[in-house]
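Q: Structure tokens for this one, please.
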Amino acid sequence: MLVHSKGARRAVWAVFFVLFLPIFALPLLVVVAASFATSWSGALPSGPTTAHYQDIARGDSLEALVTSLVTAVAASLLALTAGTWAALAARRLRPRARRVLDGLFVLPVAVPSVVVGLSLLVAFSQPPLLLNGTPQIAVVAHTVLVTAFAYQSVTAALARLDPAYEQSAASLGARPAYVLWRVELPLLLPSLTAAGGLCFALSMGELSATMMIYPPDWTPLPVRIFATTDRGALFAGAALAVALLAATLLVLLAVSRIRTKAAYR
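A: Here is the predicted structure, written as tokens:
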């Protein structure tokens, strides 16, 4: 910690908790408490129940959670592949061309996601790429929205990568493909796993673009949460939100373990 005196450290921790609890922790605790309640008319929720979670386990909400997981995993893998390939290729470009490529990848993040959803809906509503009404269009939309983060993460990791590794392998007669697979990608593995986890988390919570394009038989959990709370079922919606949060955290914990092992290689 940059603060060395004991009193100053206590003050920093006090400010942290004063800001963290009401802004970050308290809203999450309220959602968790509401997910176990049937009513909330006083300071605390009343009517404790687990019925909302039982409904998730045996209803359409479980299918929506699986839909979100499949969409997020597919979009993360595609985004990580495209972002890594583009970042590796951008190293060979001239500065002006590299800036153009950076702008193209950042563009979907710079505009509202609902605009991205509408543009994909229009673009893929006619042959030969007719994806409107299929699960693939949801995966494409999520991939477009999260690829920028994968590209930026890998680009930053490549900037920190010592070129001596590549030069040493090349001087020993290794081909460029061998250097890529056996030298560069293993060194980039911690950054790749971190980028994949970020893409997954962003995809799991994506709503605006998804509302524009999702087919009726492919409803992700954020859309179901919105529909449930819009009908006034706030406590059931809170349980769905907790399920979404728990599933995302479990996957991120698994990714963090992979990243930790990769960092020690």
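A few notes: The CA atoms of residues 190 and 259 lie 5 Å apart. The chain is about 80% helix and 0% strand.
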